[in-house]
Each structure stands twice: as structure tokens, then as C-alpha cells.
Model the fold of this input.
Amino acid sequence: MTGLSVRDLVVRYEGPGRGWTTAVDRVDLDVADGEVLALLGPSGSGKSSLLRAVAGLEPPAAGSVTWSGRDVTSVPVHRRGFGLMFQDGQLFPHRSVAGNVAYGLVMAEVPRAERGRRVELLLETVGLAGYGSRAVSTLSGGQAQRVALARALAPAPQLLLLDEPLSALDRGLREHLTGELHDVLRSTGTTALYVTHDHDEAFTVADRVAVMVDGRLAQVDSPGRLWHAPVSREVAAFLGYGPFLAAEVRGDAAHTLLGPVPVREPIAGPVVVGVGPSALQVVTGEGWTGGDDLDVPVVATRFVRGRTEVDVTLPDGSAATAVAPGATAVADRAQVRLDPDAAVVVPA
Ligand SMILES: Nc1ncnc2c1ncn2[C@@H]1O[C@H](COP(=O)(O)OP(=O)(O)OP(=O)(O)O)[C@@H](O)[C@H]1O
Done:
């Protein structure tokens, strides 16, 4: 048995009054050796609690944590050999950049020369070659998080646990560092559990994504499968699908007021169709063919990231957003069309 195995794990907190909060509710999870798994879920869903229990920072009420076949459930945090990185990297303020990165190597009694080489290599890996002698107080937020990453990677941990490592950074930097983090984790062959509430981040960084809702894992899948085949309306909604249209399955399609959507996997019982974030398109000029396209009232328009987003009301009363390329002028009504490949069929 290699990798991480979590079985039947329960984490509970005693409430301020009577009663307990069950933050992690009988979770089973496997992370293969060298795999990066993102734990994705809304605020309060239990992601940090699960990660902290794996780290050994939170004693589980039940269940087990196994690494490489060894039960570590009651092994203290510093004996697990796992690396940790949090939202606020919390660098040691009185050490230089190199001093911070070398910290775990000093603890592990790695000889000085070897230490120096490793620190340099890691700084290069995180794009901070030549920064070794800088005081950490002179770094930008993004640079400081890269130092924190280099420090976490320095002892070559068997398993790296990251809790929202980029969420304190602004969007542009976060997107950039997410890509870098992906490359660094791959190139170092690090097994990682990565907590985030941001699906773009999870999809970029991870081999597989576990969606956590109310203390349970609702779905664990590759980013592609998760996106194209969410198992429930709840998971689809969390990924950004919506509104959900009434639908009736006939043959291999689910028929909606905006036309048919292919049923990719058989679903027993009633279904609804989740409209993907760019699935509804504004049809302009001669593109209008009638057919399944609908003419609907416009509620608002805005220009976002190089395209026009148009809020409309569908005939069933649901609010939806349609997209148009560039800065498209839209009046008080718009013709919209559903791209069936950008919608999903899920259980109602
Ligand atoms: N130390 C604590 N004492 C009491 N309740 C806690 C404690 N830590 C977390 N909780 C509760 O446990 C539940 C799960 O919290 P947790 O921090 O694990 O969620 P999360 O998914 O990581 O959320 P976020 O994305 O907001 O960090 C929440 O209801 C939270 O209020």
C-alpha cells in the first residue's frame, strides 16, 4: 500500500453551548503516490478539518489515517514527515530568505554544503534564484508565499498538505502561481493534498478533485470528469452550473425549453439540465434561426473580461446569464441559444 488512505474519518468540535459540530463525517479518501488531490468545497464544508486531521493537528473522533501502509492516526504531527503550507506562510521574520528555506534542513541535520545547494535549487524552482540573502520583510506577498512553498518542499516531504496557500493573493498573481505550483509539484514528484474553495485553482493544480459538502465527499474525480459529469445538482451548482432547467428524457437526450441536451451517462429517475457558465449564447444578426432559440427579456448587461454578459429571464421564470463576444450592443430583448455540449444532465 503506497500513498495516503483515510478511512471512516470523523472530526467533531464541541459547540459553544450544548451539542457538537461534525465537520468531517465518515470520510474515505485515497491519494496515490505522486498524485495531487484538491479538496474543493464551500466555506465551512470541512476541508481544513480534514486536512488538519491528516496532518495530525486535529485528533479525529473516529477513523484512521494511513501513509504508505503505516497507520499514523496517533502519530504526533512532527513525526509524520508531512510538509505543511498555509494561507499565510508565516515566514520567520528575522531570518533571510535562505534561512527560512533551510529551516527544515537544519532540523533534519543535513550537512551545510548540501543544505546550501538544496536551498539554491529550491529558490530556482520557485522562481526566486538570487533572493537567498534578502530579508523576508522586503518581499511582496507573492514572493513570500513562494518562499513558504520552497521552505515546505525543502525537506522533500513524503506528503505536502496545503491549506488555501494562495488565497491571500490577488487574482492575477494567484492564477500565475497556481500554474507554477502545478509545475513544481509535478517536477518534484510530490504527493499533495490541496485545500481550496476556488474551482479554477483546483482544476489547474490537481490530478483529481474531491468536492466536499457538509463534511462529506460528494464526488472525487478527474477535473474533466467532474466538469462534464457532476453526480448531483449540488455538485453542479457548486461548480457554477445554473439555472437548472426542467427536462424530460426521450431517447438519448434530455429535452428542455432550450432544446435537447445529450444524456452522456444513464441516470435513473427524473433529471434537470444545468446550464454551464458559457452555455447560453446571445445570437446576433443572421445567426437567428428560430428553432430552439428563445427571444427573452434582458435584465442587465455588463462587459467582463473581454466579453458581454447579459442577464435574462427565461420563459420558466429562471434567471440566466448569456454571453456575447466582445462589446456587443444588446437592447431590451435578446435571442439566446443553449450550447448543448456546455450543459449537463443531473438527477433532479
Ligand atoms: N476549532 C473549531 N471549533 C469549533 N468549530 C469549528 C472549529 N474549526 C472548524 N469548526 C467548524 O467546523 C466546520 C468545518 O470547518 P472547516 O474550517 O473545516 O471548513 P472549511 O471547508 O475549511 O471552511 P473555509 O473554506 O471557510 O476555511 C464549520 O462548521 C466550522 O464552523
